[in-house]
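Retry 2 of 3 after timeout on previous attempt. Resubmitting structure tokens to design endpoint.
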């Protein structure tokens, strides 16, 4: 299993704790939550069940379908057939009876996948689940319940931040993050897929660190051929993935997609106030719920841009797949099944790579700080522009504002060769620290830092950079 050593260790520790455990695993859809549980607990799951997607059933018959599916799972996994449950209270009563009957004193592991899907409207599921855990489950020292869900707003509201019967009942929560570049490389190597780090970075710009997407890459094709086959073929397996991502896990997917599409239009992101103005919606609890769900799913990050007050927090879209889809696919009016192969050197793709690489860097701040030797230093990280539209103003790709009175002013360049500083660019770089010093304490030092693919070409102007971070550093 790639990239999940910490989570696997935690789950095994909880399995062997000798007490009742209730664990919630959440994260972006397709990030590998079910795979983590299957691989960690292979051969040790006592009972497992996965909810039916609400998108696949009529609302009127969804409760009955969920109950029947739950009953069938019990029968398939050893329960003697009996009268089918008519509600969730009876369904969990059957589970309790079954677990008691087969209890030999060893650890019993119950895995409920896609738990939010079971909580259909007016089904009484949450009340019954509370009763199952509070009245019965939490008192059984050999019981471990693991639940997963991609509907992160539900997991946050109903489990992690629950103020009702499940308040404080979780014994552990795990947020599963996408792969880093290094983990993507390890994944490709495990599949005998030969890609250079230059191509792995480009694959990350498109698919992010999502194992489900990476699993479709074929070793017999180039990266460009794979992109066309998966995204631009008429029946490409990921062609409609953008809509599926949101339709399957959000109660109101249209408003969620609207927020994502607004955030896409500015690389630095927007404040809550700006989002409400753009969409014509109210700034209240519903918006908070939607934004928190996007944050929990790693679609979006929240940060305060340099020079702004804390009241002007920005929300920035960083999900690489969504960014790629919205840039190249949402406005396509005709099918071109070789679009990526034919446009790989086109200016629109070259320009996009520049912005996409900035987001790759935002998703690898830990690796950048490690390359700078400041892993233990607290910092705030943001983009910055003197103008909100990033045009004709002072624009800096990344500022790392450190607690040790240093600011790393980062230029981010995605190139196929070493970056060369010419005389005009040298003058621009010299002027930028002075502009920043107008906003910070005189005691703060400002280091010009270059983050690029293949390093810096040395000439009479290259000394303007104090630090140089290469693509390889992002893989550490």
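Retry 2 succeeded. Sequence:
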């Amino acid at each position: 299993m790639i990239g999940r050593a910490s989570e696997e260790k935690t789950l095994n520790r909880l399995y062997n704790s000798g007490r009742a455990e209730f664990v919630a695993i959440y994260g972006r859809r397709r990030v590998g939550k079910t795979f983590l549980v299957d691989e960690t607990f292979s051969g040790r799951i006592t009972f497992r069940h996965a909810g039916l997607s609400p998108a696949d059933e009529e609302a009127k018959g969804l409760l009955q379908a969920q109950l029947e599916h739950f009953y069938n799972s019990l029968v398939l996994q050893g329960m003697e057939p009996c009268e089918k449950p008519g509600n969730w209270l009876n369904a969990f009563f059957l589970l309790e009876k079954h677990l008691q009957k087969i209890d030999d004193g060893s650890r019993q592991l119950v895995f409920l996948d896609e738990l939010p899907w079971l909580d259909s409207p007016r089904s009484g599921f949450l009340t019954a689940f509370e009763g199952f855990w509070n009245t019965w489950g939490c008192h059984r020292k050999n019981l471990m319940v693991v639940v997963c869900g991609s509907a992160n707003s539900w997991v946050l509201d109903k489990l992690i931040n629950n103020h009702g019967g499940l308040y404080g009942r979780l014994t552990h929560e795990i947020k599963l993050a996408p792969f880093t570049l290094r983990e993507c490389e390890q994944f490709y190597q495990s599949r005998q897929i030969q890609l250079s780090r230059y191509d792995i970075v480009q694959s990350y710009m498109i698919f992010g660190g999502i194992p489900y997407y990476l699993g479709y890459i074929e070793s017999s094709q180039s990266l460009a051929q794979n992109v066309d086959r998966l995204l631009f073929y008429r029946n490409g397996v990921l062609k409609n993935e953008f809509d599926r991502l949101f339709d399957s896990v959000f109660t109101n997917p249209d408003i969620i997609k609207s927020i994502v599409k607004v955030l896409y239009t500015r690389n630095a992101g927007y404040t809550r106030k700006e989002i409400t103005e753009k969409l014509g919606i109210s700034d209240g609890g519903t918006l908070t719920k939607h934004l928190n769900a996007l944050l929990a799913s790693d679609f979006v990050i929240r940060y305060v841009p340099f020079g702004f007050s804390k009241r002007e927090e920005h929300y920035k879209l960083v999900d690489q797949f969504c960014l790629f889809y919205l840039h190249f696919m949402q406005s396509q009016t005709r099918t071109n099944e070789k679009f990526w192969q034919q446009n790989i050197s086109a200016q629109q793709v070259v320009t996009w790579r520049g912005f996409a690489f900035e987001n790759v860097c935002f998703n690898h701040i830990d690796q950048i700080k490690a390359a700078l030797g400041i892993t233990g230093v607290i910092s705030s990280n943001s983009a910055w522009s003197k103008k909100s539209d990033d045009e004709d103003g002072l624009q800096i790709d990344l500022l790392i504002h450190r607690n040790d009175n240093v600011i790393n002013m980062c230029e981010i360049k995605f190139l196929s060769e070493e970056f060369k500083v010419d005389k005009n660019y040298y003058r621009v770089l010299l002027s930028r620290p002075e502009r920043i010093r107008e906003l910070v304490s005189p005691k703060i030092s400002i280091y010009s830092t270059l983050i690029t693919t293949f390093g810096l070409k040395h000439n009479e102007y290259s000394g303007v950079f104090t630090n140089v971070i290469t693509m390889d550093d992002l893989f550490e």
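Attempt log closed. Residues 5-176 form a domain with the Rossmann fold fold (CATH 3.40.50.300).
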